[in-house]
Amino acid sequence: MEKAQIAEAIATDAQRDLDEALPALDAALTSLKSLNKNDVTEVRALQRPSPGVKLVIEAVCIMKGIKPKNVPGEKPGTKVNDYWEPEKGLLKDPGKFLEGLFNYDKDNIPDTVIQLIQPYMDNEEFQPAAIAKVSKACKSICQWTRAMYVYHFVAKAVEPKRQALQEVRDDLAVTQQMLDDSKAKLAAVEGGIAALQAKYDACIARKNELEYQYDLCEKRRVRADKLTGGLADEKVHWKETVQNLDYMVNNVTGDVLLSAGYVAYLGPFTGEYRAMMAEEWLHCFKELNVPHTKEPNLINTLGDPVKIRSWQIAGLPNDNLSAENGVIAQYSLRWALFIDPQGKANKWIKNMERGNGLEVLKLSDNDVLRSLEHAIRFGKPVLLENVGEELDPALKPVLLQQTFKQSGSTMLKLDDSVIPYHENFKMYITTKLPNPHYSPEVSTKVTLINFTLSPS
After folding, report:
1. Does residue 9 belong to any structural domain of this protein?
2. Is 260 inside a domain boundary?
3. pLDDT band at 18 (very low <50, low <70, confident <90, very high)
4. 26: Cβ–Cβ under 8 A, 6 or more apart, which residues?
5. Which residue among 174, 199, 218 closes a domain?
6. pLDDT of 81-113, one tens digit each?
7. How many other β-carbons are positioned within 10 Å of the β-carbon of residue 26?
């Protein structure tokens, strides 16, 4: 940075010196450019040049290094230097003469030439203004000569500065090259550091990940030890459970057969009659060697304790008969018709299906079929309540689930309309009659379930 500042200072100083001489030089060259060949030819054609013209001719000959011709002087026996005849030869080709002035080596003017031209510079008659009175061309040559004279001294003063500037620039170039090399080495080192830093960061991340995995495995090991220790006490229970499951699997035939009989036949009857029929069927199982558990029943075989509990929360009475009725309704292939004089089934269904958009209908409603159609189309549950001993014949396709395929969709014909049959559709039917008598035609279309609660 310091060497660059020194170079800048030297260059500025040299330029300041040159700026003093260059305006005069530029003015002289501009004046020369204004000349034409005729102006030069006019000077050459002079037979008796004036003293001012002679001064200009002598000066330009000295600047061009042309030696004068010795001619006799005014006094007898003397000789003087005459530049006019050599100059006339120089002016013979005006274009070449002007080109020589333009291309003059102003940076290498000999000191001897400057010494010879010095008297002319000191001569008051050798001024452009005075010369302009006698010749335009000589005025321009006079300006040029004086400009070369001034430029010589400026160039002489500037040359050491130029050399110093060149030395500083050479030194600066070497220093800059060293700096560039150092920067390149620094960039390479920084790149290596960055690569090592990235590798270090990756190793740290890997280390942290391994530590995390180690802690996680350690926690899992501790939990596994606790779990193993805690489950050791369950071994006996598991063994009993496996034995019980083996026992249940080996005897599932009779249990499922008994449950199927419950669902198919015992729905219309009271709890006492169901128990009596179940006992008789078990007696037949023993005679026919049908495998079954010790005391099979519908709830233990097909019932889901969680589902039964949700039914009871929805209003299903908390007794075995009601639980059996819920299981029969769940597994029956036909829609259930509940004999419900106390209204317990009606309340249970409304609570259970309230969140599913339950449609509550009566056969006495004017738009019962339209509401039923809407529920079938959009898969909503329907409760048809307070029916008698006869059902509307228009309900037959719904009760028998007489669906068919049309264009890939499941359809059902209700009255005179063919409607899409949604798979989520459900139908419940209730009656308040305490002891209804349904014809075989009705009994084959629905699953009769007796919801009458006896004092027992």
Report:
1. yes
2. no
3. low
4. none
5. 174
6. 566 666 666 666 777 777 777 788 877 888 888
7. 11
